[in-house]
Amino acid sequence: MARRAPAGLPLLAARGRALGRHRDRCVLRLGPAGGPRLRRRRRGGLADPGGLRPAGRASAPRRPDRSVAVSRALDVLPGPWLLRSTSPGLEAHAELRGSLPQLDAASLLALVEASGLRGRGGAGFPFATKLRATVSAPGRRRHVVVNLSEGEPASAKDLALTLHQPHLVLDGASLVAHALGTREVHVVTAAEHPEAQEALLAALAERRKERRDGRRRWRLHEASPRFVGGEASAVTELIDGRPNLPVTSWRPTALAGVDGKPTVLSNGETYAQLAALVLGGAPVPGTPAEPGTRLLSIAGPTGTTRVVEVAHGTPWRTVLSTTELAAPVLLGGYHGTWAPAGALEQLSVSHADLTAAGLGLGAGVVLPLAPGTCPLRATAGVTRYLARQSAGRCGPCHQGLPALATALDAFLAGGSLERVERLRSLVVGRGACAHPDGTARLVGSALAAFPDEVAAHSDGQCRALRPALTTVGVR
Ligand code: SF4
């Protein structure tokens, strides 16, 4: 799992042993803003309408670590593309989008390549590359996985899609399954949001009644409420009946995923984008270089997360309020990067624009810092949370992240910045998954984005009006 020997191993080794051995996967088996506001609480329930039952559930405890939880309420705003309608029923969906065409693999690949569609789960990997690899892989069996689990606690876009446009997500998955010649599709939701699975069960019952998917078999799973439960290898482990934790993947999921077979595993929004492209019915928003939209989960000032759909190329000054633009913003969630106060004012919601500025959208989480809050203390709070989310399998992660969190707390109390930097560099690239890298990126980004605060803390001062507030997204 470690890609190179840790230079400062003694520092980490002195902290004791990892809780458990990391188990590698068996190599042999590997092969809108505007319009009326809709409000929906993260509660509620629908009866199982059609006898469909979940296929799997993570064995981890259902109680999530909500020490830095961001909100309990969800506002979903109509948008220009995926959220043109927020009515979840199949009748409204079919009326708006029409019937589902059946494309072969070559046709679907050509369409995806022309669109430049990138995954919406965080990494932004080109979907065409993933699809082509699975289509070209040897063997006959293939799998399709829709990941709606959103391990990132500040993200709510997949929940919003599931509650308001489940058929768009299911259409996208059905298109891929047909192109791959597979009947079975796995859909993974978050265990802490049972309403998502209930919404899917209702949608699947409608589809079965209307014969929208032919003989498609849908298998529902619940991912554990932990940060790394939605990581790709953790999701395939869950589906294969093993603990919902990341493992070292020697081959990409596209070639060796579920049951060691070629698997297209992508985020729910990616499938929804694909379905919207295929179904058409409206001009594709965005720019010629970046067609399409992004779903953003924006932490609001009253503990509410608003989910907005924004066309690529939209200026941030039309997405965020003046107050939010004037504050530091954590972009991309807890593994993301800090934009200093005012930095987004001249930028747009664009992969190219943000990358050039050293920023990234990840899975679309946008966390403006509450006015007067110390961004370093907020980062320290998130770092402590992330340290607790380690699966405890890789020593540099299990031992290194708590050490990094402790060192950051110590620095903020007048300790050594050098120790923070040293520990940060020690954990990068040393986990089976990207959790240590993402945590190190967050800390490094804070130290780079807020030099005045770093200097103040080095002198034993804190410039914030609210230094005690240690979380982002909470007001
Ligand atoms: S890097 Fe951390 S979270 Fe990822 S598998 Fe290893 S111990 Fe688990």
TrEMBL record:
It holds the Pfam family Complex1_51K. Residues 49-61 have a biased composition (Low complexity). Keywords: 4Fe-4S, Iron, Iron-sulfur, Metal-binding. This is NADH-quinone oxidoreductase subunit I. One of its GO terms (molecular function) is metal ion binding. Residues 31-67 are annotated as: Disordered. Residues 376-420 form the NADH-ubiquinone oxidoreductase 51kDa subunit iron-sulphur binding domain. Belongs to the complex I 51 kDa subunit family. It comes from Nocardioides pocheonensis. SUPFAM superfamilies: Nqo1 FMN-binding domain-like, Nqo1C-terminal domain-like.
